[in-house]
Amino acid sequence: MSVHGIRSRRRDGHRARRAPGARRVAATLAATLCAGLAACEVEWGGGQIALENPAPPPDRTGATEELEPEQIPLPTGPHLFVVRLDERGAARAVPLAMLGRDDGTTLAGVSIPDTEDPSFRARFDSAFLSPGTELDLLARGSRIGTLVLDGVPRPGGGSCASIATGQALLPPGQDAPRLAFAVPRGVSGFSTPRRAPPIAANRSMSVAGPVLAERLIGGGRAFLAQRADITPVEIPGDTLPGMAATYLIADSLAAGPPGSQAVSLFFLARFEPTEGFIPIWEEVRRYDDAADKEAFAFADWIRVGADRIDVLRRYDATSTSFALGVTGPGEAEHGVSWVEPPVCDALTRLTLR
Q1: Which of 65, 87, 93, 254 is most enclosed, with most CB atoms within 10 A?
Q2: Residues 325 and 254 in one domain
Q3: What is the mean predicted confidence (pLDDT) over 49-53?
């Protein structure tokens, strides 16, 4: 007897009588055929039963796949690199800040979000530190050569950018400075490198420095100021060099807490033939404890497009970092535009081998 043969007639045309055992067999067979189905209807002999699976339907809401972390877009602006060179031109470089426009008007820090996007560092290094990348090498307001990266970056710690390595190509007669800066080719505005002539401090700077310090610090203790640094600086448009100087009271540029009522002064001055040195930028800090210590010393100046970028070293009680001041064409005011986070101190990282 098949399932469809449950409806059968005797040969004499009368309906066959089903015994109770037959009904049980039919029900068992129907249940077997419907096993695993959510619901099933079976009909026989004019009767109809519906078999339903009492188990709840499977929950498919929690079966979503784990999504990959969303990739954070790479920065689009050019980067300013700080470069450490040895006497043979072998270089280590690290992105210091991102220039908001090609002319360097705005600055932003460089941060590697490894925890939010584990692929970011590899993508960043591939985009900006890849082998054969050429950068304009800058120092003392000039392009002094080309830096060619070898594509073997050393990982940075935490959110700090990786350290690139490479080789500086310098014109004949150009000595490799210990510290230089670099930007992508074409950003600096220089077509060819040239030898940057050294500028020496002269006696007029030594004489004028203390006078300017007394005037800018003011107060009864100004005469206690001691010169910590003096650097001759080229001022675009001037025939004679200007100077940058740092004077301190009850403090030093070395790490350590300051003395009581400490003062730090940094100034940049240009030379006017009829008036002598005129300060065009000063930073005065007064502090009593290590948490407030801040002193600046001049490191270098570079030209990016039409802008002048002054690079200062910033000293607090425990570390040294870079500070940048940007002055656009026609601007009379100077000031600190951006300070490097101490956690990614580029100068220390490039010095360590």
Answers
A1: 93
A2: yes
A3: 54
